[in-house]
Structure formats: C-alpha cells, structure tokens
C-alpha cells in the first residue's frame, strides 16, 4: 500500500508494517508480521492472548525496538528515528496500562494535552460525551477501570491525531458508553484518521473495521474485510439435538467434502461443500433416527466462528 510521504490524504498509508520481528530471549513474540492501516480506515487486529498483538502495537509506537522488519508511521520509519513534535502530535494512543499520570485530575490533564496541539478538540464537549465531568475532581490513581478507559480515550483523541492506536477501547464499559466510543471512533475516521484497533469483541470489529487481520503465534494468518473473511469460509448446517449422537453413519452418508462435528454437547455442525443434497442428507439422517433437529439453520459462519476455525481458540 503506497501513499504520500506524510500519509495524510484519504487512502494513504498511515501505518505500514512489513516483516516485523520481535524476540524476547528464545521466544519469538512477533514473527514476520505484515500490517497496513489506511488514512480514513480502521484495521482491527484480532488474536488470542499471547498472539503478539500488544508487542506489535508497542513496536509501532516506538516503545519497543524490533529485531527485524520495517515500521513506517505516517511515512516515517520508526526504528532509530527521533520524531519531531509535529510527528508525535499526529499519533494518538490508548493502551491497556493507560500511561496516564496517576496524580493528575482528568479535566486538567485533558486541557494540558489540548494546549500541546495546534487544533485540538473542544475539551469540554469531548469530556461531556465520555462522562468525564462526573469524576473530574478525582485523581487518576483513584479512578475505576471504566473511568480510566474513558479518560484514556479522551486523551488519545483530544489532539485530533492522524493515526490512532486503540487497545481494547471499550473493555469494562457499559453498553451506552460503548456506543459513544464507537461514535467517536467513526468521527475520527471521518476526519481522515487511520485507526489500529485491537479488541476481543468481534461485534466491535465487525461494526468498526473495514479491514481485519487475524494473528496467532506472532503471524498474520488471515486478512481482509470482515465480509470477505466470512464469505470465504465454508457454509454450514447447524442444529441442536440430544447430546452424544452417533455421527459415524451421518459422515458415511455425506460427501467426503463435508465435515461433521459436535463442538459442544448437543450442538451439531456440518461444514464444507454444503449444497441441497447435504441439507437433505442431514434431515433424512435425523428422520431415520427419530431426532427432531432444533434451530436448524444453513448459512455462512460468523466472524467469531471463522476466528475459532483458524486459531482453534476462542478470542476471549
């Protein structure tokens, strides 16, 4: 993905990662990662715990030095570079540890951060939307997890960054606050910001991201638009019935191009080259055994099911 040197025009490369490697002693946390974030777009980085997501983000932010590969942020190589004030102010980050000064008061902190930028957001309006005034007089160290989340997001957004790193932005938030966060992210994207989002919420990824990268073992194992990843997966027949049914006769009756499984007790999945004959074979097998299939459905899997199929693990 190309783009102009500063990565600012819509469709340009706000973040470009190629062959990123990071090792901790004998363990390789990131193993040849490729990743792109476009200006005016959201890339969701999905993976189970320990997949290398946080290390990747830290390398992109210059918090850790890569052992190999290239990371370009807004057109500039990160490794060995000393970013100037304009470049630093063009990047916003919301990390899990917050990185906020623990003795600061929320509104004072946001106003201080706003003064460091040429065209900041309206601090009071941003704070109001995230409910910050309700805890404005409390020091950061005494805030609840959800309050810190909202303050950290406000701090990341206040300078109108052109590249935004969001690590689990809605973790611990109630549904109403979650919707506000989504609105703010969409507004930032609408202004041309590129966003790298890490999340354990597949619904969040599907709603916000135009590009998804699934990582496992420090590598990107699948990438594409959410709809593309789902459309490229095998169709399936799903139904529920009594647990522990003997599936061997069903496997013998169906094509070798389909797989039959009981991923959880009483939940059955027939996946692969599903066609009308496969559906008829499933219902015939059930009828012969006096089994009444419940909630029988035919369709593409969800993004979460694609993730589970690729990694063998649930996201959470």
UniProtKB/TrEMBL annotation:
Subcellular location, principal: membrane
Ranges where the ABC transporter domain occurs: 15-242
Superkingdom classification of source: Bacteria
Pfam families xrefs: ABC_tran (PF00005)
Keyword 4Fe-4S: no
Membrane topology: Peripheral membrane protein
UniProt cross-references to Gene3D superfamilies, sorted A to Z: P-loop containing nucleotide triphosphate hydrolases
Protein name according to UniProt: ABC transporter ATP-binding protein
InterPro entries linked: AAA+_ATPase, ABC_transporter-like_ATP-bd, ABC_transporter-like_CS, ABC_transporter_ATP-binding, P-loop_NTPase
Keyword ATP-binding in record: yes
Subcellular location: Cell membrane
